[in-house]
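Notebook B, p. 112. Complex prediction, attempt 2.
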Amino acid sequence: GAGVSQSPSNKVTEKGKDVELRCDPISGHTALYWYRQSLGQGLEFLIYFQGNSAPDKSGLPSDRFSAERTGGSVSTLTIQRTQQEDSAVYLCASSLELYGGGYSNQPQHFGDGTRLSIL
Amino acid sequence: GDSVTQMEGPVTLSEEAFLTINCTYTATGYPSLFWYVQYPGEGLQLLLKATKADDKGSNKGFEATYRKETTSFHLEKGSVQVSDSAVYFCASGAGSYQLTFGKGTKLSVIP
């Protein structure tokens, strides 16, 4: 079946502009995650959705970053007034329902990412 | 907090060489452990996983054993191929939604 789909695959924009990144998760996956991958920095967790709600927004680097999810499906990550340090690959992942109270995690399935370049 | 440490790269090997990429973790409780692989220009793909101590995850000739006593999950492959060239990420998940990733190890296999 279809995997996690992200768009655009590449985005180049000028400093100060707003950008919207889109993620379409695997059908039936209730959990959705956003990560940022900067050169040489590994993966940085940004935010997580269970259904339409985001229990933990602590990974968002500043108040210029926001995310929403509607209908338990598509999510958008918005960056306002972009800065050059926002340049990175933004990865989205989705997974099945988590087991309540357990110590196991369902594997996360990743999209190919959006490469964001701020000029 | 939780953390994952994996060996620094890059690693360059000749085809058919033996591969080991070390990974150790710190976490409360008993996390699930994962290896993800990222081929050039692509997103991360789950390579293998283990959910409890002494479990061995395996896939595509790669193996990793969950060692609680040494808090390790080293990735091994007996004979690497050029097509294995990629970045490999070790990750732990301790019962919550958030995976903690290592910084990644870039592997280059030369013919």
